[in-house]
Amino acid sequence: xxxxxxxxxxxxxxxxxxxxxxxxxxxxxxxxxxxxxxxxxxxxxxxxxxxxxxxxxxxxxxxxxxxxxxxxxxxxxxxxxxxxxxxxxxxxxxxxxxxxxxxxxxxxxxxxxxxxxxxxxxxxxxxxxxxxxxxxxxxxxxxxxxxxxxxxxxxxxxxxxxxxxxxxxxxxxxxxxxxxxxxxxxxxxxxxxxxxxxxxxxxxxxxxxxx
Length: 211
Prior knowledge:
The chain has a single domain (about 5-55, about 85-190), classed as Chalcone isomerase (3-Layer(bba) Sandwich). It has 7 helices and 11 strands. It has helices at about 55-60, 65-70, 75-85, 100-115, 125-135, 180-190, 195-210, and strands spanning about 5-10, 10-15, 15, 25-35, 40-50, 90-95, 100, 140, 145-150, 155-160, 175. Helix 3 (about 75-85) crosses helix 6 and helix 4 (about 100-115) packs antiparallel against helix 5 (about 125-135). It is globular. Keywords: Isomerase. This is Chalcone-flavonone isomerase family protein. One of its GO terms (molecular function) is intramolecular lyase activity.
C-alpha cells in the first residue's frame, strides 16, 4: 500500500486512480453504507469518491467555507459538484456479499423514484436504467469485490465490476443520459444520499482541496 492510501474493512482506496482514458483522479473522501440490525451495526459497502483535481476550478465559489456549509440543505454545492464537467469516479467496495440482482434492484427503484418525483422519468431514462440493472443482474458481488462507476462527462456513465481491488482497464457498460448519470451520482453522495458518511467525507475533501 502506497503512502496516502486508505483502507476500510479490507477495501483499499489509493490516493489517486489512473484510468487509461483519463487524467489522474484524486481521492476526495470515503464513507460506508450500513444498517443496525438487532443492535449490531452491519456494514454493506465502502465508497470512495474520486475526481479530477481540475474540479476545484468549478467549485471555487465554495472556497473558505466549512464542510457543514457545503452540505447544508439546498446549498447548491452537490449540484455544482455533479455538474462540474470533469471526470469523476466512485469505487464501491463490497464488505457484506450481495447478489448483483439485489443491488441492481435497489438502484433501480431509488433512481426511478427520484427521477419520477422530479418529472424526469421518460422512456429514455427507463431504457438506460433497465440496461444498468441487466448488467448488474449477471454479476456476483462477494466480499472484497468492487463496483467502479465512472463519469467521463456529466452526461455519461460507465460501469465495471472487479472481483478484487483491480482498477479496470476498460468499462463493460456505457450509456449516455444526463438525467440518469447525474441522479445516480446524487444518489451516492448528494443531498439525501444513500450514504451520509460519504457525503460528509466528500465535503471535507473538497474543503481541503480548495484550501
